[in-house]
Amino acid sequence: MNRIKADVCIVGAGSAGLSVAAGAAQMGASVVLIEGHKMGGDCLNYGCIPSKALIASAKHAHAGVENPQFGVEQVRPAVDFAAAKDHVRHVVDTIAPVDSQDRFEGLGCTVIRDNARFISETEVQAGQTIVTARRFVVATGSGPFVPPIEGLDSVTVHTNETIFDLRERPDHLLVIGGGPIGMELAQAHRRLGCDVTVIEGAKAMGKDDPELSAVVLDRVRAEGVTVVEGTQADRVSGADGSVTVHTANGDFIGSHLLVAVGRSVNVDGLDLEKANVSYDRKGLKVDDNLRSVSNKRVYAAGDVAGGLQFTHVAGYHGGQLVRALMFGLPAKARTDHIPWATYTDPELAQVGLTEAQARKKHGSKLSVVRSEYADNDRANTEGRTTGLIKVMVVGGRPVGASIVGHLAGELIGIWAMAIANNLKMTAISNTVLPYPTYMELNKRAAGAYFSPKLFDSALVKKVVGLVQRWIP
Fold this sequence. Notes:
Layout: E1 2-11, H1 15-26, E2 31-34, H2 41-45, H3 48-63, H4 81-95, H5 101-106, E3 110-112, E4 116-120, E5 123-126, E6 129-138, E7 142-144, E8 157-158, E9 172-176, H6 180-191, E10 195-199, H7 210-222, E11 226-228, E12 235-239, E13 242-247, E14 250-254, E15 256-259, E16 263-265, E17 279-280, E18 283-284, E19 298-300, H8 311-327, E20 339-342, E21 347-352, H9 355-362, E22 366-372, H10 377-381, E23 388-394, E24 397-405, H11 408-420, H12 425-429, H13 440-455, H14 458-470
Parallel strand pairs: 1-2, 1-6, 2-3, 6-19, 8-15, 9-10, 9-15, 10-11
Antiparallel strand pairs: 4-5, 5-6, 7-16, 12-13, 13-14, 17-18, 20-21, 21-24, 22-23, 23-24
Cofactor: FAD
Keywords: Disulfide bond, FAD, Flavoprotein, NAD, NADP, Nucleotide-binding, Oxidoreductase, Pyruvate, Redox-active center, Signal
Protein name: Pyruvate/2-oxoglutarate dehydrogenase complex, dihydrolipoamide dehydrogenase (E3) component
């Protein structure tokens, strides 16, 4: 048995683990990085990167349908589904070296490619190696949750871990789950020539602002995706090539089945009990500093920390832990400034409180200001006039922003920055932006906050009147 001592031992080479490993190693700490599967984790191999690459192919396929208003003849492109998957693989392979074992060994990490399990409060075993470390970071992420639906074992069930390897185009894709992953992949497959039916037990995109999610759902339905809400999948039958999802509201028949109902954290096999690390189905039980409440040597980062499950949150956790592990500084992790985006077309993005959450928390102190895409000059030039921005403001500062429309995932950034840094609305309204850009939507929203105070105020008009009398 090989034995290694380290300052930091990281279990999991996804976004969180790689962020900690890179920072700690480059600052001179001895780092052991353990990964039992693929370097780069879920995001690179099964999540953010392949899904956005497939969405990009789908956008190109759909572009010909939207051409007439620009004086270009409408065309229906011939889609090579396998070639679209080649594009996905090429993108993953292009980015992979950044997350590779070679790169991290070059940074000074000892990388072990095997499954890890705790054998004591101070030791982890991976294969034939035992690592003793001063601190441990559990960053094992999450995987697709497959619910115990009767009959699932009789058919091929695709999740985000397998759907990108499918090279034959489904004739009719059934999607169980109408959340962000389900809706993104449903629209992408529809644009690539598949019939698609989404079956959602509650409300599709139900965690988002209902006014904004309705804009997305209207567009997705208009493109031909059947979205069935309030319908639980009770049972599945059939065989590969002909799958039936049985529900109380009828049966739905397709050629392929994708399950996208949520995520479950990866804690199985870690033997956390042997390290005296408390956990539940949401992940490790940690304090605000991402530190285990039961074993102070152990930290968690990313999905397994039990909070928001986004790649950028995992990276944020990694940065916070580098501060804590390297310098002993507080690593209190916030969530109020964390944005997220759903990459449907139109996109939907959120940071901070939604309108409903803000009204519940702040009541009459809340102001909600809006900016419509239809009023933006750049949106009009490109025919992207469907969408809006809502900003929730309390005491002159934004506490939340919701955006639906073209580039929503990009536009949300300025509101995330404002909330993270406690900026006032004047910081946005005072910013001079190039014209014409979509970013002006954000400035227009900020201006909408001040307009009533300036233009509808009797006091302001009285002051202006007095000044005008005395100015020579």
